[in-house]
């Protein structure tokens, strides 16, 4: 590793991004090119991919490499030439470390795309420059709008097949911005690229002198992180995963013995915000208020904790706290409610019908619920919500959800992590839908 990898103001940060797009738009090829040109491929892996590529007749501008083979790991993916499951890859540059989720483009795998985009700082949506904005493009952009993904990048791919025509790129960019404006996505970055050749992927291309923006990698290296953005505006939340209460003899250094004599802490991952020792917090359910006396992280005492750290909190008072409880900054939790309006990304082949009994998982709390009413389904051509009496697999719809117990539910617009939930089948435990809270009501 050269010294340059240790330089730069963003060195050490972890950036999560996903790719999405319609079938054959070149997602896996783009990811492979990104990994290859950023020198993130091991020599033996590159040799194996080069041999397989040669057997398939690849050559020319690709240097004899089928870049999609660098990410499509399943045998079925290689044989069919499609991406089926989300492929996660880790790589690093001189400025940042990345976790990349290469998502499938087929309509039947939209649920995989939702999975990859949920925790992403940014999503790169590919569009074939020859085809323009398609229904699946609208579907993916609708998902990103509902998930409030902070950064959306549209890569207009295969621009080389159109002779690097600026007019063709401008037409696609105009259509993209019309759709994203209607969806309320805000600022969207549009980049002309050729995943196969490498134009504007890692380095800026001389073939597109009319484009004066950054390459894809340059943009990914400089965009702000979700946690950096949200920690400044969102209140502290920690869903309790485990109560730590050491039993029996604990072997520790003598100077630390006092910490574990009557040790009790509440462990979980910080969902949002920042917490410091001495801060006042509220616990739900129960509504008890207390003060944070200690924050532990892997045996080390911290002065503060922030998302997405996993920590254990020590509190001044002994409150009735168990898994599923939420520890929050004092005075910031909303009143508990039993009913909410939600957008649902239906992921299961079994349809949703009004009256369905399900389990709902908010953070670490799982409770019984019923869906008494389906209020609509998003039309991906017009982007409007139309009347519907149920949801089918890959539908994006709206529904009323009624809970068996009241929870301090927040809207997704107010808190991206606390306002999201899963819908689970009560018998077999499979995930039926991903949901986000649009409105809360029915105060208990």
The name of the CATH superfamily of the largest domain reads: P-loop containing nucleotide triphosphate hydrolases
User: What class do helices, strands and sheet pairing give?
Assistant: alpha+beta
SS summary, helix count = 9
Estimate the global geometry from the Cα principal axes: globular
For the terminal residues, how far apart are their CA atoms?
58 Å
For the report, how would you describe the main beta sheet? 8 strands, antiparallel
Total number of beta strands: 23
Helicity, as a percent range: 10-25%
Which regions have little confidence, pLDDT < 50, spanning 5+ residues? 1-12, 73-84
Instruction: Output the radius of gyration.
Output: 24 Å
Beta-strand portion reads: 25-35%
Number of domains: 3
- The CATH topology of the largest domain is given as Rossmann fold
